[in-house]
Each structure stands twice: as C-alpha cells, then as structure tokens.
Amino acid sequence: MFGSLGFTELILILFIVLIIFGAGKLPQLGEGVGKAIKGFKKSVNEAEAVDLEAQNIADQQAQAQVSPQSTDAAPSPATAPQSDQTVSPVQATQPEAVETPKS
After folding, report:
1. Distance between CA atoms of 13 and 56, rounded to whole angstroms?
2. Domain span at residue 53?
3. pLDDT tens, 51-70?
4. Do residues 34 and 41 lie in contact, with contact meaning Cβ atoms separated by under 8 Å?
5. 51 belongs to a structural domain
6. Does the residue 53 lie in any domain?
7. Model pTM?
8. Is residue 16 assigned to a domain?
9. Among 25, 31, 44, 83, which is 20 to 30 Å from 59 by CA?
C-alpha cells in the first residue's frame, strides 16, 4: 500500500505529525482526512456512473443506426429484377461402364 515505506518510516512520520498537530487535534485531522477520502470515492463513483450511462446511450444510438441500414441492404422480392429468359431443364445421363483390365 505504501510502496517502499517500511514500518519504521511510518512510525517516524506518525511521530512527526503528532509533534506538529498535537494530540488534541489528531482526531479532527483524522476525521478531515476520512471525509476527504469519502468525498473523493463518491466523486469517482459518480463519474464512472455518468461514463457508463453515456456509453450505453451511444451503444443504443449505434444499434438504432445499424438496424435500418441492414433492412435497406436486402432487396425485397417485389423490387428484384425479373429475367424473361427461361432455362430448359438438364437431363441426367448415366455414365458409361468402364472395364478395368485384370492383371
């Protein structure tokens, strides 16, 4: 959590804070730091919620734009061009029997 800070360094920092602010102000200082952290987390969560909502709206708009385009791409049978040519059916033929030489 604190990276390269060891136990001794943390104790030294806490001792210096105690000397600077005094024992009476430490609870107030802790409360202020706690409120600041809580406010920061709340802001981050709200920003993530706004980002997710904007992303969902963008996805829905993209799907709405793709759907009409896909139906326009396939021609309906009524508009498909008809050919006037008729094709005669092909008759199947039997293949000729081939004799294999015996060795």
Report:
1. 46
2. 31-71
3. 999 999 988 888 888 776 65
4. no
5. yes
6. yes
7. 0.44
8. no
9. 44
